[in-house]
Design brief:
By secondary structure, the protein is an alpha+beta fold. The chain is built from 24 helices and 26 strands. Helix 16 crosses helix 17 and helix 18 packs across helix 19. The N and C termini lie far apart (about 85 Å). The structure holds 2-(butylsulfanyl)adenosine.
Length: about 700
């Protein structure tokens, strides 16, 4: 279509065209954002906006109040609103064999201070790989529903859940005034195949597997689409509740049924480990004939009181475990051994494979662990190798089929220089990993750190994927994490790049803006310091409370023998190796500069805000000493931390409270000397809101 150039337009023509453009662009925004169904390409959309801008430049007086150039942000901003879960939604740790399952049970008994032979009952439930959701009921009415999201907050999909027959609008019979009910939304195998056939016939996209189909169907901006999709739901867990709905998980499942939910009919009450193992074998044998895909069985300790005491560590409960079905194996040809450079400089060998189907998943890459493993298994390029895939872990190379080794295959020589930057790669004595010494001068380390920085548990910036990071890095736009928050200045340049456009550039800028506020724990985790995973980041955040304190204390801790160094080492859960990594990080000037640059660009929220404000222990430093009679040390510490307390190993003037068990020694004496408050185990139970020991 030829268009009159803006110069040649009369004022009346210009006004008419601006009105048309405003309407048209608004319509495309709605199609794109609200219905997930754009009618025109990004390029065509950009052309409309450019035309609008050109005419406005020529006739500034004609700029409309509803002009697309004035509108920053169409509501809703690219999707669903966020909903915070009242109780975090956890994931599960995995076991793969009876011995690992027995060890899980032993750990739980130890934590509870039970004898090795003490009875422990379970409920076994088939594990469906769908999409977990959180349903909130108030006075028996369904009021809100959200996806799991990051475990703390998910996407508000209430309207879509309301279209599902399996989600009761009202709970039958008596229900707590407030309750969060969790379950799995999934699609049965037959429904998945039928949906894909229909999608294909209509020229729509087909889904890779039932899980994606379920997620894609629930996360629709138009609930009418969800309503038309065959989604099922099994209810299986409890979040927040204003009153305990049952004493055991088994009884809770019964209540879920009575309220109107579907509970997986294969779920079973099991008395001990032996019955669990038998159940595992039974479910494995029926797996192929089930209407839906499962990848294992979830075992939950039945007693809800014990579940509460066990709590969780990191993202997984201590009271439940997923026992996955055995790994699937296949053999294929090893094409190449590629050396990846990680964010801490670790050189990791990766097997590039002739793609092969392993239990329904096409595998073209597998882990080779480290150089010793390659040598021990004598893995050579060209070999036929046996690979294994288990659960969601990365496929592994198990062994070489030596009879099929091609002539002339040479043993693999592990590089002693970084393949990315050429720096020396050193392997400290006693360690399995060789590391690039290039630090931040190594482009691979820089890129990996950025990828980690924006990952989901860290800054979680949507639209800034690995490819984009690499692209912007290579352009020199993104050399360190602080540059991310300077990207908005380049919105126009980004929009002009191949594969981008005004819309995607704007979305990226918004996603970045949305993350300028960040909780301290996430911030610390994002830095990618070795050995500082999510859990340790959280410990540090809770302990130091605010960014400024943390920074000051870490800096002080770089001095050997300083009080700050001692304090760091005595935080329970932070061992000397972790303290060492932190100190090393802070000793590096460039790291401090990066931190300061980030702090100037961001609002880093204090950790104290996360802790229950009504907890008398929030922010207090607690030391346990002596033998506790009614709970194990780990349980006591976990409880204290859950209430916002900092637990340390040594008593100092900064200690607020010393819990004194039997046969307490020097720590109790020191507390008395320093005038630190000491309490008995029974007093501690009362303070921590634990039931009095019976
Ligand atoms: S319980 C602590 N029960 O598995 C509570 N989860 O790997 C954690 N899942 O996010 C959830 N079937 O999506 C639970 N019967 C079941 C489950 C189940 C499938 C999924 C769920 C969860 C994931 C954890």
């Amino acid at each position: 279509m030829t268009r009159t150039s803006p110069e040649a337009l009369s004022e009346a023509e210009a006004a008419a065209e601006l009105a048309r453009l405003a309407g048209e662009i608004a319509r495309h925004d709605a199609l794109y954002y609200r219905q997930d169904a754009p009618e025109i390409s990004d390029a065509a959309y950009d052309a409309l906006r450019r035309r609008n801008a050109e005419i406005e430049a020529r006739f500034p007086d004609l700029v409309r109040p509803d002009s697309p150039s004035r509108r920053v942000g169409v509501a809703p901003e690219g999707g669903f609103a966020k909903l915070r879960h009242l109780q975090p939604m956890l994931s599960l740790d995995n076991v793969f064999d009876p011995a690992e399952f027995v060890e899980f049970c032993a750990r739980a008994r130890r934590f509870l201070g039970l004898g090795a032979e003490a009875p422990l009952g379970f409920v076994g439930e088939p594990k469906i790989d769908g999409l977990s959701i959180n349903l909130t009921y108030e006075h028996g009415h369904f009021v809100r529903g959200a996806t799991r999201g990051d475990g703390m907050e998910g996407e508000d999909v209430t309207a879509n859940l309301r279209t599902m027959a399996a989600v009761p609008r009202r709970l039958h019979g008596h229900a707590p005034a407030l309750i969060e009910i969790r379950g799995e939304v999934f699609m049965a195998k037959a429904d998945f195949l039928a949906l894909n056939a229909a999608q294909e016939a209509a020229g729509e996209k087909v889904f890779a597997n039932p899980r994606n189909a379920a997620a894609g169907s629930l996360r629709q901006l138009d609930p009418a689409i969800t309503a038309a999709r065959p989604l099922s739901l099994f209810a299986y867990a409890l979040g927040e509740a204003s009153e305990a709905p049952a004493a055991t998980h088994w009884a809770y499942l019964e209540r879920l049924r009575s309220w109107g939910f579907t509970v997986n009919p294969l779920s079973r009450r099991l008395d001990d480990e032996a019955q669990a193992a038998a159940f595992q074998a039974e479910i494995a044998a029926t797996r192929a004939g089930l209407a839906y895909d499962i990848d294992g069985v979830v075992y939950k300790i039945d007693d809800l009181g014990l579940q509460r005491r066990l709590g969780f560590v990191g993202r997984a409960p201590r009271w439940a475990i997923a026992w996955k079905f055995p790994a699937e194996q296949a053999s294929t040809v090893l094409r190449e051994i590629r050396i990846q450079v990680g964010r801490t400089g670790a050189l990791t060998p990766v097997a590039e494979l002739e793609p092969v189907n392993v239990g329904g998943v096409l595998v073209s890459r597998a882990s080779l662990h480290n150089e010793d493993e390659i040598a021990r298994k004598d893995i050579r390029v060209g070999d036929t190798v046996l690979i294994q895939r288990a659960g969601d872990v990365i496929p592994q190379v198990l062994s070489v089929v030596t009879e099929r080794r091609p002539q002339g295959a040479q043993p693999f020589v592990f590089p002693d220089h970084c393949p990315a930057c050429g720096s020396l790669a050193l392997r400290p004595p006693g360690e399995a990993v060789r590391r690039c010494t290039g630090g931040l001068t190594c482009p691979a380390q820089r890129v990996e750190r950025l990828i980690h920085f924006v990952s989901r548990p860290a800054f979680d910036i949507e639209g800034l994927g690995e490819k984009t990071i690499q692209e912007f890095h290579d352009l020199g736009w993104l050399l360190g994490p602080a540059d991310i928050f300077r990207l908005p200045e380049r919105e126009a340049e980004i929009a002009a790049r191949e594969g981008w456009g005004a819309l995607s550039a704007r979305n990226l800028v918004r996603a970045i803006a949305a993350r300028r506020r960040i909780p301290l724990a996430r911030f610390i985790y994002a830095l990618g310091i070795r050995r500082i995973g999510e859990r340790n980041a959280q410990l540090l955040a809770r302990h130091y409370g605010g960014y400024a304190d943390w920074r000051a204390q870490m800096l002080a801790a770089t001095t050997i023998g300083s009080e700050a160094r001692e304090a760091l080492g005595s935080i329970v859960g932070i061992g000397p190796a972790i303290a060492e990594e932190l100190v090393e990080f802070f000793a590096e000037r460039r790291n401090r500069e990066t931190l300061d640059a980030l702090a100037g660009l961001l609002t880093i929220e204090d950790a104290a805000a996360e802790v229950a404000a009504d907890s008398a222990l929030a922010g207090k430093t607690v030391v346990f000493t002596g033998t506790l009679a009614t709970m194990s040390r780990p349980e006591a510490k976990a409880r204290a931390q859950a209430l916002g307390a900092k637990v340390t190993d040594s008593v100092s003037a900064k200690t607020d409270l010393v819990v004194v068990g039997e046969d307490a020694g020097s720590k109790a004496r020191k507390a008395a000397e320093l005038g630190v408050r000491t309490i008995t185990e029974a007093e501690w139970r009362a303070l921590a809101g634990m039931e009095p020991a019976g």
